Amino acid sequence: MKARRNRNPFAYTAILLSALFVILIVFGIGMFYYVFSIPEPEGLSLASWPHTFTNDFSTWIEYDDGQTDVKALGLQRLEEYGLWVQILDESGREIFSYRKPDVYPEAYSMSELLALSESGYENGNTVFVSSCRISGTTLNYLVGYPYSIGKTMVYYNGENVVRLGPLVKRILPLAAGAAVIGGLVYSFWLSKKLSVLIGSIRKISQHSYEPVKEKGVFGEVYRSLNKMDRELRRSEKLQEETDRTRKECDSEYADCQGIFVWRESGAAQRRLVLSEL
Length: 277
Prior knowledge:
The protein has helices at residues 2-6, 9-36, 49-56, 72-81, 110-118, 158-205, 219-276, and strands spanning 37-40, 43-46, 61-64, 67-70, 84-88, 94-98, 121-122, 125-134, 137-145. The chain is of the alpha+beta class.
C-alpha cells in the first residue's frame, strides 16, 4: 500500500492543492473578520452592526405629549454594550440622554448632525446618527460606540451596477467552476508528467531507460535525464572494457608464471643429475 501511494503523485498533488485552497479560505475569512469586525460583549460582530443597531434603536424610543423616554430593554442593551444615547427634538435640542459623555453638547445644528454622521472615531467614541417619526413628531438621536469604526462612502454609477448585477451573479459561479475544473485538469496533467519523470529515473537505475523527446515544459529535465543515461551507459561500457582487459592481463600473467615455474623446475633437475655424476 505504501509503495502504491509513493507511485501516485496525483494524490499528493490533489492533497497539496486542497490544502492550499483551505489555507486561502481560512486566511480570507480571518482577514475579513480582522478588518470588518469589532469586539462586543457577546463576541465579534461585523462593523456594520452599529449602523443596524442605531436604526433599530427607534423601536425602544417612546414619545408622548412632549415626554421622551426609552424602554427598559433599550436601556438594558445600552448598559450591556457600553453605549450611550442622546435624543433631540426637531430643533436639534436635547430632550433625553443616557450615559452621554460631557464632551458632547446639548444642542446641534443640522450641519453639525451631518458632520457627526460622517465623522470617525473621536473622543473615545464613534457616533452614529439616525431619526424616527413618532406621533407626527420627527426625532433625531445619536448613539455612541466605544469602538474605532471607519465610515467610508462609496460613490458609483447606480444604473450600471444594477445592470451588471445579474450578469455578475451568473459569471461568478461559472468562473468558480472553471477555476476548479482547471485546477483539477492541471493537477492531472502535472501528475502525469511527474509519473513519467519518476518512471524515467527508476528505469535509469534499472538500466532499461529509453531516451525521451526533449520538448515541452519539462524539456530541460528530459535533456538532463537523457544526458545522464548516456553518461551512465558510457561509464558502464568503459567499466566492461576495463574488466575484460584486466582479465586478459591476469590470464597472460598466470601463463607467464607457469612457464617460469616449469623452467625453474627443469634447471633444478639438471643440477641434481650433474651432482650425482
